[in-house]
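Progress narrative, work stream C.
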Amino acid sequence: MEHHVLQAIARLARTYTGPEEATSVMERASKSRFVLLGEASHGTSEFYTDRVAWSKQLITDHKFRFIAVEGDWPSCYTLNRYVKGYSNTGDDVRDALQDFVRWPSWMWANREIAELAQWLRSYNADKADAEKVGFYGLDMYSLWESLDEIMKYLESKPGSDLEAAKRAFECFEPHGRDEQRYGVSASLYGEGCHGEVVDLLRTLQNKWKEVGQDDREKALSAEMNALAVQGAEAYYSTMIRHDAESWNIRDRHMVEALAKLMAFHGNEARAIVWEHNTHIGDARWTDMAEEGMVNVGQLLREKYNEEVFAIGYGTYQGTVVAGRSWGAPLSEMKVPKAISNSWEELLHRSGAEDKILLFDKRAKELDEVTLGHRAIGVVYHPERERGNYVPTVISKRYDAFIYFDQTHALTPLSKMVVHP
């Protein structure tokens, strides 16, 4: 098996220096409607900087319309307003990153994202609002923040119907902004706010179609916040009982949020999606399928087929930012050498340089090979490394794979120096 895989890697892999040299992969990706860019951790600089490079080229050369990420809508929308140069957003990218306060804040409040934001702001500077490239969050952890944003939006609109928002706010208020407390109440005692959330979303749905150009994105933001509240309510109501189902609710929500953004940007819009490999790599080609779990990559492929192009990422060893437990202070940790006979270890054994693999017809012989593929979360214990590997058919999970032999921790906001 090892010899077979090493032979295939030798035939498929090309030395990787960046997307500008990966012309065959870029050609395939640029023809897609959705380009999904993964990461093997949320704390590795190379994954972020490389996705920045791919995103810049897809935007400038192939007119992709927005970047959507595994982040909360309200905080990402603040950054979106900054990169589009909207009023009252200031000139300091640090200010635009201050709303990323939810743990793990380093996922988006870091030097790598700051540099992307500054580039997007410059790129958008001479464009009409309707042509500016956006930066949006697809996730749904922002229950309370999204409710706050909806109330602020409706209170700023004379004559708006506040009743649905007030009912939803009053329903959630007794839980003291504690998601776990709400989940227990809704799941075990049937004291949830599902009806109020549905009414709220119905009140705000598609209102962006009815307003002028200046207010379209504000109305979209209100709807996306309502969608986030709906997703969060379902997620916290379910996670107490069903791990697989709560995962599925989250990934289905992100796909629905992405569909809303596509509708807003028009029939010809194309999107770049940044998420962890566990979300963008097709779940059907991992052990997630056996547990009844789906993910963004699978759902998009099932709906859009060849219009989806997924690029996974991996590393052999290095350093990473993560926490020792949920909510713990961030720490720079060592990423040990990949375990024997994992995808990462075989890629290293085939030659200790960065590589890119395009999984076309020449990769068919890998379609029956299942090996461990490293996935590092925001909570990480390097000493328990063997548990971080997902059984994966890599040539089916992704359309292409980028491998960095040595990687380094990203730079969180607290350590960041921004150069204008």
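Work stream C, second folded protein:
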Amino acid sequence: MAGTVEAAGGPARPRLLPSTLLWQTFLLVALLLIVALGSWVQIFRYFQEPARSRDVAQMVVSVINLTRTALINADFDRRMDLLIDLAALEGIRIYPAEATDELAPLADTRPLRLLTADVRRQLGDHTRFASRWKTLDGFWVSFRLDPDDANDEYWVMLPPERIENPDDFGWLGWGGGALLAALLGAFLIVARVSAPLRQLARAARMVGSGERPPPQPESGPQEIALVARAFNQMAGNLARMDEDRALILAGVSHDLRTPLARLRLGIEMSGAPDDEVTAMVADIGEMDRIIGQFLDFGRGDAQEPTAAIDLATLAREVTEPYRLRGVDLRLEVPESLFVQARALSIRRALANLIDNALRYAGGNAPLEVTVSIEDGQARIEVADRGPGIPESEIERMRQPFTRLEKARSNTKGAGLGLAIVDRVMRAHQGRLELSARDGGGLRAALCLPLAAPAGEQDRMRRSAHSEPDRP
């Protein structure tokens, strides 16, 4: 339940409370129940102890008075037999008091203070108490046959079960049972509240991943039902907006690209000088590519379902057309490396990184595309020798329509390539890493969670370090 919290600018510190609403609320309710039960126990003891002390004191006084009466009325020669009978039949031991008696005081507790005060009030201030007489432990009370004769004094020991409360553990058991029942009820109540919230959280994650969640049940408490109804309405509105956007984008693609195709054909057949035709055709191609980027960004995450895909095979297929066009590209991939992802989205992301590298690095040096496993994640890295991105600008370059100041004189591109890649990675619970390359240039890496079990991952790690593919 508990975890760690990342401290700003420092190491992670342990989390004192669990992170889920269920356990936070349950622990709070459990704490309140424990405090309430403890308070009721103390209140009960506070008001119950005086009454019980009076009852026990009355019993002690009655035993001592009966014992004194029996000793006074008995013949002096038969007193010893009477003491033996009391010890055997009633468990009451009586011994003559002596000046050399070794005594241990009673424990200083509220019940014993109340008890001794009541007994002393009835028997007289000369009454003494002890928890041990010589070597015998028990509840010892002194009494005199004649209140004015200090030499004729006796000690009487009562059985401990007559003094102690035998129901303490019984009350403790009942209290513990009641507490457990209350905690179980509290857990069921909190779970009933948090279950719909967890369902809504799962549905919200599906919306964030570009999927359409199933309708949420609009039942239960009024507040939960209102939230579920609002979520269903929001999900329906988003689905209709996606459908409208797809329809609009399809129209835009047709209405813009068809005139561009006619314009390109007209330019190629115009009879203009070859260098002018080549420049104009390149501009039209760049316009078409920019339109494609706008469409890719506008579509958002594809509705293609995720599946286990081999990144090594995908990298070979994406880079092969660039090789055929004469691009100096070096590819290093393992035998296979599987992830759970949308193949078309990953292809588009990798192609965008390669296009971005070619646009800014040009033919300065070969591009390097590497597929590997690092820190428990699959990694596709595109490294170039272009101008790179300053570290202070890396986060800004993830935003749409963003270009470096140096690149603004170059009108090619709409500044959407890295934004599209970053969106694709976030939809796959992965990340886009941008970092400076030693010797100049940029490293752009797609990091994705592995899809294979632990044994298969070990095999893939071994194959990731095998002989790489070379052109």
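Confidence is low (pLDDT under 50) at residues 4-12, 407-411, 464-468. No further action is required on this item.
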